[in-house]
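Deliverable D5.2: sample structural annotation.
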Amino acid sequence: MIQQLFRMLTLITMMLLSFSTMAMLNLELTRGMAGAVPIAVIPFVVQGATPPQDVSAIISNDLQNSGRFKVYAQNSTNVDEVVQGSIQSLGGDRYQVSFQLLESFKKKGGGGPAVLDKKYTVPGDQLRALAHHISDLIYQQVIGVRGVFSTKLAYVVVQRSVQGQTRYILEVCDQDGYNPRALLTSYDPIMSPAWSPNGKQIAYVSFEKRRAAIYLEDVATGTRRLISEFPGINGAPAWSPDGRKLALVLSKSGSPNIYIMDMATYELTQLTHDWYINTEPAWSPNGKSLLFTSNRGGGPQIYQMNLSSGGISRITYDGSYNARASFTPDGDHIVFNHKEGGAYQIGVLDLDTGTFRALTTTGLDNDSPSIAPNGSMVLYDAIDGNRSVLAMVSTDGRVQLRLPARNGEAQDPAWSPFLS
């Protein structure tokens, strides 16, 4: 594998020197958590016209694929919680959806009042989104953490034709792989998508002009604008937590260095001023520091810069290669690419204790980790057979999922923030 730190540089050097189907992902649970919560999701009662989406089936899939629930289709003494509901057609493509989350016979000795009892009226094309919202409510009530079923994923699909052409598609889909939508299609590379904190824009790198440039695209409208096309490297965009600044990597003055762009004025502030390779910036949750990857210690390692003082400290020491780091939402851990003894892994480091834990064990080019906004899962790209796919692993390593693309390879993923 070309190490992530230098993949962008190699690609840019090559560029300086030098098919039409949606690739829907299929979320597959490959390992669930021992002791998962047993829950019954009873098929919702349908009144009137059959709705275009099976809401209870979507809820069942969400909870099952989280790895934290063992889902049953009917109530029994074996379950802790019960989900039941109904869907009533109101005519004119409007549906009223009611659901209740009940504590079961097992917990209540015969059942009790509903823990959740909600009613919604939505058009048919919003039933899937509503099902994800209901899953989020159930997950939070039972697990105690906000669910991410209503979030979205951005990633790059790579399609290679028999004629040897390669096409790149920047795509967005639901968290479960449904509703893929192309934001940009190009025969030139696309990389490094990054969601704005409000989920309305994505920054990314495109080589469509035969040189690296950073664009911002409005996810809803497709409107986009060019924000950086300096000579050399324009890469690794990363939004500040308040959305007012963008960290990026530029080599306009020589070696790659970290800059911050004010998104109101487009004014640049240079943060690193040396001849090392400095790349892959990532903001702390409080916006007071940046992680970045640098070879200033001899090989790719992770460093942290205090934005007030400008002081830089080394964060990683174990392993010959550590890169592509980002903070967990609580700011207490970082997740990153790690290499030890020839195996590439996704790992997590406790910043208080310095304890490292590998989350993946295959060693097959695990790359580009992106953390869910609730901190529970890490999205990354991995090699499955002879192609790149997206995968997920929980931050405790106990749950694993896979999202193979139906058409092409999926890589360079980014998990959206909470969208509502």
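Annotation notes: The chain has four helices and 31 strands. The helical segments are 4-17, 55-65, 105-108, 127-143.
The annotation will be released with the project's public dataset once the embargo ends.
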